Amino acid sequence: MKILKEIADWAYSLAAALALAIVINAFVFQPTRVVGSSMEPNLHNNDYVFVSKLSHTFAGVPDYGDVVIIDSRVFRDRSIKDDIADPISTYLSVAKITEVDNHIWIKRVIGKPGDTLEIKEGKVYRNSTVLEEPYIKEGMKPASPKKVVVPPGQVYVMGDNRNNSSDSRYIGPVPVSHVLGKVVMVL
C-alpha cells in the first residue's frame, strides 16, 4: 500500500510540473528551434532560440526590427487551445522527437498598423522612406512593385533572407494575435 501511495505522489508531482511547464511556455517564455534558411544570415537552420511570450499574452504590438515567431495560418482565428498545443509541439521538436510545426515561422517586423509599405527595385520603403537593412542576407531580386497599407491590429513581417522566405509578401499582414512572441536569445 505504501508503494502505491508513493507512486501516486510522484505521478501527481510530475503531472503538476508538466502542467506548470506548459503554462509557462504558452504564456511567458518558450524555447524553439529554427527550421529553414529564411532568416539567414542571422539565424540558421537548427539554431535554438528563446522567445518571450509576454507581448502575445498581453496583446502588444511588436517594434520595428523585432524578430518574432508567428502563426502563419492568418486566415483562421487563434484560440487558447492553440496557445497550449503549440508549446507541447515545440517541446517535442526541441527534443527532436518531432519536427517543428510548419505553421510557426520566425520573421522580422517591417511594418506596423497604418504603415504604407512599398517594395520596388529590390528595396523596401516604409511611409516613402527606404529602409536601411544591414541584417538582410542580400538584396532582393527585383519583382513586380507591391504596395500595401498595414491594417489596424496587424503587422507586416519578412525574412532576412529575402530571396528565400515565405512571409507577408505571400500571406499578407499578420494579425497581432498571431504574433506569438519575440526572440530574446539565440544559442
Automatic annotation (TrEMBL):
Stored PROSITE patterns: SPASE_I_2, SPASE_I_3
EC number(s) on file: 3.4.21.89
Indicate the principal place this protein occupies in or around the cell: membrane
Q: Record's InterPro entries?
A: LexA/Signal_pep-like_sf, Pept_S26A_signal_pept_1, Pept_S26A_signal_pept_1_CS, Pept_S26A_signal_pept_1_Lys-AS, Peptidase_S26
One Pfam assignment: Peptidase_S26
For this protein, the record's SUPFAM superfamilies field holds: LexA/Signal peptidase (SSF51306)
Q: Where in the cell is it found?
A: Cell membrane; Membrane
Q: What class of enzyme is it?
A: hydrolase
* Residues in the signal sequence: none
Highest taxon in the source lineage: Bacteria
User: Can you tell me which family this protein belongs to?
Assistant: Belongs to the peptidase S26 family.
Please report the name of this protein according to its UniProt entry.
Signal peptidase I
The organism of origin for this protein: Sporomusa sphaeroides DSM 2875
